[in-house]
Amino acid sequence: MGLRMDLQYFAESGGQEKTEKATPKKRQDTRKKGQVAKSNDVNTALILLFVFILLFAYAAVPGQFLHDLFMEIYINYVGMAFTIENVMALFLDLLFEIAVVLVPIMLAALIAGVVSNMVQVGVLFAPEAIKPKLSKINPINGIKRIFSARAIVELFKAILKIILVGLVAFGILWLYADELLRLALVDVMDGFHLVSYLTGMIGIASALLLLILAVPDYVYQRYDHEKQIRMSKKEVKDEHKKMEGDPLIKSKRRDRAKEMAMQRMMQEVPKADVVITNPTHYAIALHYDGDVMAAPTIIAKGADYTALRMRQVAELNAVPTLENQALARSLYDGADIGDEVPEDLFRAVAEVLAYVYRLPSIAPKRYPEV
After folding, report:
1. What's the Cα-to-Cα distance from 94 to each of 71, 72, 82, 101, 107, rounded to whole Å?
2. What pLDDT was estimated at residue 130?
3. pLDDT (0 to 100) of residue 137
4. Alpha-carbon span 95 to 97, nearest angstrom
5. Which Pfam families does UniProt cross-reference here (predicted)?
6. Which of 129, 117, 137 is nearest to 30 (CA)?
7. pLDDT of residue 174
8. Domain spans in the chain, listed from the N-terminal domain onward
């Protein structure tokens, strides 16, 4: 059986051991399914703590209710005729009064349950976790869970908690043994106050003890959850491929992005003062405005086909084109689009711009007052 499970695990992991931490997508997917690191012991301890703290401060209300109820039963209800109508009326009356007393306690338990879950897993709505599945009612799987190592561990934990809570309760009762032995000699309400006080103390002490015991369980649940959602290297690679999409679609997307980038760059070429070429392999478009720029700026550059397109656009828009192989190659390798000309190329670029500005077709536009 163990060998078969190992082989199944090996096959499901694609022949690789699950050694990689879960990716953010895997964590999100498992969270949507309701698979999160959560300790039920934390929920139980916090619910008990909230409820017993409320009972500790709220004991006078149910105590007075029980006192009034017994008084009313012995005074008003004892002589009542035993009919269906009277029994139903009495039942509905008592049900309403009991509900009024118990609603605050039930609300405290509800709030504690919500808070304990939010502390552990945050805000989570996972309807997939409550979908009916045949595997959940499979008797074979149920038997496996009953006799699994986890079930044995939970059994020992439950026994340990029962023993410790029993010791706490016994210790508190032992401290108040004299008062408890005198209960028959005190007033009913005084006796009720003592019992409710001891019950609250036992409940709060037990809840605090269970909360302390729940901390290592929560740590273990987080460790076990991380272990369960581990991935093999193949699963990580497959997930990346799936997220990135089909290679053909990726290629088309890249081509589209390059085309759009080229279109934007070609729109900048008409603004250039000069296009420096290699003459066929490289093209660099430069623009300089002394009022707003500290140095000439590269507004477009390209190689091969892109360089050819730049020269064509420059020709159509009457932008001067100047061949300078060394300068074109240096500018292409030394700066990106939007960068200023490197300092070591200032002199060469200044000579090119000075030459361009003296051209008959450029000088009148550049210096209209001359």
Report:
1. 13, 11, 16, 11, 20
2. 61
3. 65
4. 6
5. Bac_export_2
6. 129
7. 92
8. 23-228, 250-362
Amino acid identity, residue 116?
Answer: S
Q: How far apart are CA 183 and CA 294, in angstroms?
A: 96
CA–CA dist 271, 319 (Å, integer):
8
d(CA 125, CA 340): 53
Residues 266, 310 contacting (CB under 8 angstroms): yes
pLDDT tens, residue by residue, 311-321? 888 778 877 87
Residue 327: CB partners within 8 Å, gap ≥ 6?
276, 345, 348, 349, 352
Alpha helices by DSSP H, listed for the chain, are 2-12, 24-32, 40-58, 60-72, 84-121, 139-146, 149-175, 177-181, 188-228, 233-244, 247-268, 305-316, 325-334, 346-357, 363-366
| Tens digit of each residue's pLDDT (9 = 90 or more) over 55-107 | 777 777 777 777 777 777 777 766 677 778 777 877 887 787 788 778 888 88
Q: How far is CA 72 from CA 36, 65, 68, 158, in A?
A: 51, 10, 6, 42
Question: Tokens standing for 245?
Answer: 């999409």
What are the backbone angles phi and psi of residue 20, rounded to the nearest 5°? -95, 145
Identify which of 317, 316, 307 has the alpha carbon closest to the alpha carbon of residue 276.
Answer: 307
Place of tokens 């536009």: 365
What is the structure's pLDDT at 16?
A: 61
pTM of this prediction? 0.50
Angle ∠(212,215,218) on CA atoms, nearest 5: 150
The confidence score (pLDDT) of residue 136 equals: 62
Q: Which fold has domain 250-362?
A: name from scop (3.40.1690)
pLDDT tens readout for residues 138-166: 667 667 667 777 778 778 888 988 899 89
pLDDT, tens only, 288-309: 777 777 778 887 877 887 778 8
